[in-house]
Amino acid sequence: MKTVYLETTVVSYYVARPSRDIVVLARQELTRQWWQKDRATRKVVVSPVVLDEARAGDPALSKMRATLLAPFELLPPCDAVERLAGDVRKALNIPKTKIADAFHVAYAVHYDVNYLLTWNLAHFANAETEIRLADFCRRRHLCLPLICTPEHLLQREDS
Question: Fold for domain 3-158?
């Protein structure tokens, strides 16, 4: 069974109120489709960073996110993840205020997951970042998970 690191944006899109923005609304629907059709076919893991981010914001939505995340395996923090997150932040030029994004990558890389599932197109799921991250991992002899959106994992069903 393939392992998916579930980044916070995915569960946030799942519980969010329907957006008026058509692109965001489409992503919300794709997230719900992935959750219903594909999630059970994979081992889903999260990190303490995901749980911390999920607790933020609207209390009702926070509670919904926490409930949805509760069944998933929690990856333990460690010094290696801490160091790796710092290196990832520098390699990808992630602002210090967005250090959690570097931690998501660090957890996924350190625990050798197959997929990092995200809607974070600014810091993860874009071609430029993936090239830099692949180079970063190759130089350190680390395995890079496939960074993808729920839409990417659903594509296999449409083929």
Answer: Rossmann fold (3.40.50)
